[in-house]
């Protein structure tokens, strides 16, 4: 199924279910989905019922709300559009990494698959967006997203930043100013009561607890 066959609200719902499962093993609930979409639980509950009837969503005892194969195909198309557009805005139009998400949210519904394919080729088929999230390929496969939360890494570990959540633009700005971006090497220091100390480029930076839960890293052996 092509994303263009569905309206924007359906595209957003399917994409959001996929994103909720990308970096977390927690079940996707109606309440959690409503929070992510900024809608009431009752509205989301009705939407889930309709999409289940259309064989785009389903429910399981352990995973909660899940995508069917048809639903996943649409969700991955939307994620691909979003992340390619973010890469384009950041690398070709000079947008800061804390600005691209909102622009891409609007643009992803207005462009065609042909346009996205052209932009993808123009950028050299990037595998990651500006925040380190993997960009799904045109065939629907997704590069592996293997990393662990910064907050879970023990002191003394040398790690490379793999991904930073784009959920909070202000937090992205602060982390960027501290030099914490995908590809940055850092050394984990002491876990303080309200922060994690990390060494970035020879400077010690205190990363707040909430920020440490928005940064994923790959520890070096």
Radius of gyration: 18 Å
What is the C-level CATH assignment of the largest domain? Mainly Alpha
Number of alpha- plus pi-helical segments: 8
CATH superfamily of the largest domain: Winged helix-like DNA-binding domain superfamily/Winged helix DNA-binding domain
- State the domain count: 2
The fraction of residues assigned to DSSP E strands is 15-25%
Profile the largest sheet. Answer: 6 strands, antiparallel
Number of strands: 8
Spatial gap, N to C terminus: 42 Å
Instruction: Give the strand order of the largest sheet, numbering strands 1, 2, ... along the chain.
Output: 3-8-4-5-6-7
Topology, please?
Blueprint lengths: L7 H15 L7 H8 L3 H13 L3 E4 L3 E4 L1 H24 L7 H8 L5 H10 L25 E2 L8 E7 L4 H9 L7 E7 L3 E6 L2 E6 H4 L2 E5 L2
Antiparallel strand pairs: 1-2, 3-8, 4-5, 4-8, 5-6, 6-7
Helix pairs in contact: 1-4, 2-3, 4-5, 4-6
Please summarize what this structure is.
The chain is built from eight helices and eight strands, in the order H-H-H-E-E-H-H-H-E-E-H-E-E-E-H-E.
What would you note in describing this structure?
With 221 residues, this protein is of the alpha+beta class. The protein folds into 2 domains: 1-143, Winged helix-like DNA-binding domain superfamily/Winged helix DNA-binding domain (Arc Repressor Mutant, subunit A, Orthogonal Bundle); 148-219, Roll (SH3 type barrels). It contains 8 helices and 8 strands, in the order H-H-H-E-E-H-H-H-E-E-H-E-E-E-H-E. A 6-stranded antiparallel sheet has the order 3-8-4-5-6-7. Strands 1-2 form a two-stranded antiparallel sheet. It comes from Kocuria turfanensis. Keywords: Activator, Cytoplasm, DNA-binding, Iron, Manganese, Repressor, Transcription, Transcription regulation. One of its GO terms (molecular function) is DNA binding. This is Manganese transport regulator.
